[in-house]
Task: structure prediction
Amino acid sequence: MGKKIITLSAMPQNTQRTPTPTKKRSYCQNFPNIKTDLKQLNPKNKTTENPRTHQKEKLLPKFPEHQDKTFWRGFGGRNRPPMGGLGGRPPKSWFFLNTSPIKQRNPNTTMTHLFDPYKLKDIVLRNRIGVSPMCQYSSIDGVATDWHLVNLGSRAVGGAGLVIAEATAVEPRGRISPQDAGIWADKHIEPLHRINKFIKDQGAVPAIQIAHAGRKASTARPWEGSQSLKDDEEGWETIAPSAIAFGDEVWRTPKEMTLEDIKEVQNAFRTATIRSLEAGYEWLELHFAHGYLGHSFYSPLSNKRTDEYGGSFENRIRFIIETTRTAREVWPERLPFTARLSCSDWVEGGWTIEDSVELSKKLKSEGVDLIDCSSGFNSPDYKNYPFAPDWQVPFAEKIRTEAQIATAAVGSITEATQAEQIIQSDRADIVLLATQMLRDPYWSYHAALELQPKETAKALLPVQYGGRV
Result:
């Protein structure tokens, strides 16, 4: 069935649709049954009613009883507690989401929005599904390998519209681990170009998230402990807005950045942006979330500076506004230019969603087209995080409505009907999946089978598969 291309970009043009106004809601109202749901999450309960779909769904037991403990190795990449230096194992209150097979298509389904094309600037995604950036810690001096080709390429083959490469360091000291991906040198361009060509050949759009880890740099890989590395263990001096260690296993105290350091890093973002274009990327994301360098500047938890880069809201956001401006100057106007934010620190006295709305307005004025709405992980204190399906979607909805900018929703999005509801109700413009894409590289195709006629869904697959599936 034919699809109409709907443009929902950063909305600078008069012809673009205005997001549906929504009534402001508190976090408790966004998750009305969360206390009940959390109480029900135990091995004895076989089913419970999903408050969103009002359907009976099978629940999985809490950690550590569930056998799939590798779940935590992929969930959200390196920004989760088992990886980001927050401890080797998650607390028992963290739970597993439904990983049951994709359900058969509802014969009463006649229209979907998840598989509508999405146009942002001159780029058209074949659907509203994206692969969230997830670190693989498998590069050699920052250079991508065949692992990256297979990992990213398989999700493109599986039908995703957007494939975002993992956080890619703009300079060597900006890596989380010695094995992180990099784009600080020309040698990184050709291997990435090869990957991007394959992604485009499969009908997906290749994207990159460029990043600097700041005080969370110089750590071991997740399966090696995630702790700070000593100098004789390939570790290096880290930098941050203030000389405050992240805490717990990430014990290394960073050097407080001088004004010269700030300009040097901003120039590194600029050259990384140029190399990203040369490598064939068609979508750029600046990583300003998860406790890394950009986030540590705007959060009052980690920025205690008294100069023009610290103190007031305007001063704390100065670093990322300037960095955004620097990258925007060298990125083509025709291609999407986006940013990921941690929309709340989830800690009293920290960064809030209201702050994120104001920052998003300013980023929009600097030429940012879409905000990727994540949250947290600038502190080892994560007891207030309301982990549940859709737990970060309210951020995308609020920023989309109040800042009038396109958004991506992330966090515990696992089901086709769940993703469809987010898009259909105008809570976000696209959805980005992480762990579920690791479990099932063909999630997009399986979601299409559930929501669309089989012949329509099969159009997502490569011609080489023929009529065999």
About this structure: DSSP finds 15 helices and 15 strands in the chain. The two ends are 19 Å apart (CA to CA).
